[in-house]
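Cross-check.
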Amino acid sequence: MNKDKLLFEKSTRGSRTLRLGKLDVPPADLSALPAGSLRQKAPMLPEIGELDLVRHYVLLSKKNISITDSFYPLGSCTMKYNPLTNEAIVQNPGLADLHPAEDDGRVQGALRIMKTLADGLAAITGLPGVTLHPAAGAQGELTALLVAHAHFHASGQSQRTKVLIPDSAHGTNPASAVIAGLEAVEIKSGEDGLVDLEDLSSKLGEDTAVLMITNPSTLGLFETNIAKISEMVHAAGGLVYMDGANLNAIMGIARPADFGVDMMHINLHKTFSTPHGGGGPGAGPICVTEALESYLPSPRVVEEENGLRLDYDSPRSIGMLRGWAGNFGVLARAYSYMRRLGAEGIRRVAENAVLNANYLRTQLSDAYHVPYDRMCMHEFVCNNRKQREHGIHALDVAKRLIDLGYHPMTIYFPLVVSEAMMIEPTETESKATLDAFIADMLLIADEAKNNPEKLHAAPVTTPVGRLDEARAVKQPVLRYASSS
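Predicted model, tokenized:
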């Protein structure tokens, strides 16, 4: 046997040396570790065949629900399909094997991807200043608020410390404001679900820094007064920040800059089909007006005669918030999606997302109460008003959906709707899938009347039944397998 292919071999001194090809890697030196930290005997690891191991993990995977095996109408989260083309592209060694600290001259292709993506986001939003720095939408919010804070500080307006936030906003909005050292102030919604202009007017003043508004809102409604709202905030000297979580409904149709937005973040996982959830790597670029561009995090990709480079020379920049290039694979996926669709395809995505949501809304509005039963955008909110007399709550409907093979919709959010059930089909679901979901939602509505105990008992098809979720959060039972 060719000794260069051996993983381990005995050296002349009797120690074990890891051999990878022709590269000898000496064993780790454990002498510096405290004696009490070292094992006295080998761990009791199971010895099983490969087939048993594969079956174990495949069975575990079947206990999870994902977009690849079931409809996932998780409102506010835009759980759209992640095209396999994107995955194939980012596995190219020329992209996958790059080091984030590589010399600019050796990664011109990667820099071109980032520059083209940033230019595309600027075109879609109408906001020319773009940073790909933030690692997630929430960090994008924080980044934008820090940019705003730096802007006001530089212009001698440090008294502007209040961030106005509609009561239907994502919970990350007030959290980001507090982390940025600013004060969150709630703005009420009117009976139509939109921002109450009188309440907004009463809270605008010389201490107003930013209005954080989600448009379309978490109720799935487009703020028809958005231009007026922006005008009011600007007249008071403040900035308008748009939570771009719902850009999927308007991209290619309406540019946020055109209705007065100064800053916004974009969730690439929601709008541009990059992987979503699991705690890991995300991306939440922000786009800003030209007046705010100099405060963006550095470095940024700039183009010069000799090519692209990373520009660290930004005296007014708020600095780095993270190891900025760690999400390059996510950025490359979003670039792939954008280039594959083109301008026409991006607009069609938004149109189909709105069409699918309104199809579900009209088909379910007789069986479920829809508080704002009018043309919606990418999602709509219904609740249990018609099931309440039978003792059925939003949680019961959600748990019954699990038995029928669906990931439940978002429930109990937004808080402005009691027992809210927020449904977002996205543009990637077929009419056949939507029709099946409608039929099962109507089945659940019928069961609520005639067999409510079936809903109370759900789910019954899962390895674990219904948990006391409030208690589980406060008193978790954590277990681990001992290796001794």
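The two ends are 37 Å apart (CA to CA). Residues 1-20 have pLDDT under 50 and may be disordered. Passed to J.P. for a second look.
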